[in-house]
Sequence to fold (170 residues):
Amino acid sequence: TAKAALQAANADIAQMEASIASAKAQYDAIKVNIDESTLLAPTEGRILYKLAQSGEVVGGGQNVLVLLDLLDTYMTIFLPTAQAGVINYGSEARIVLDALSDIAIPAKVTFISPKAQFTPKQIETQDEREKLMFRVKINIDYNLLKEHMDKVRTGLPGVAYVALREDAIW
Fold:
């Protein structure tokens, strides 16, 4: 009787081990489903618009939100030809926002348009050439933005100052 009870107990152990293995496999499958269903942002930022709500079925490649990359904050300015011609990529700049007029935010020139804007199709005179404007992008330093990311606001109006000489003192 004892041998029969031992065999029955061993059979129960094998059955329980099979149940445990099955439960572990189910756990792994559920974990894979959760991992594959979790959306991860490609960068830090702030959600600007939610295009899909929680629980909605989203097709592959469909947008679910608009994410604002706060670590790529910049101001676009326009400089006349005489000034655009003397600045360089990496030239020092300062941004002063209307909302924070007592703070000059350090920045650098990261883009200078290769083409002038606001021009007539054919430029005939010196006077017309002086009206040419070049689009310039002034980026705020990445590390400064990262340090103050909770305070970054976009779309604020302001003024940018660009050092036209490398030895300029702010």
Strands lie at 46-50, 65-68, 74-80, 92-97, 105-117, 133-140, 158-162. The mean pLDDT is 86. Residues 81 and 132 are 6 Å apart (CA to CA).
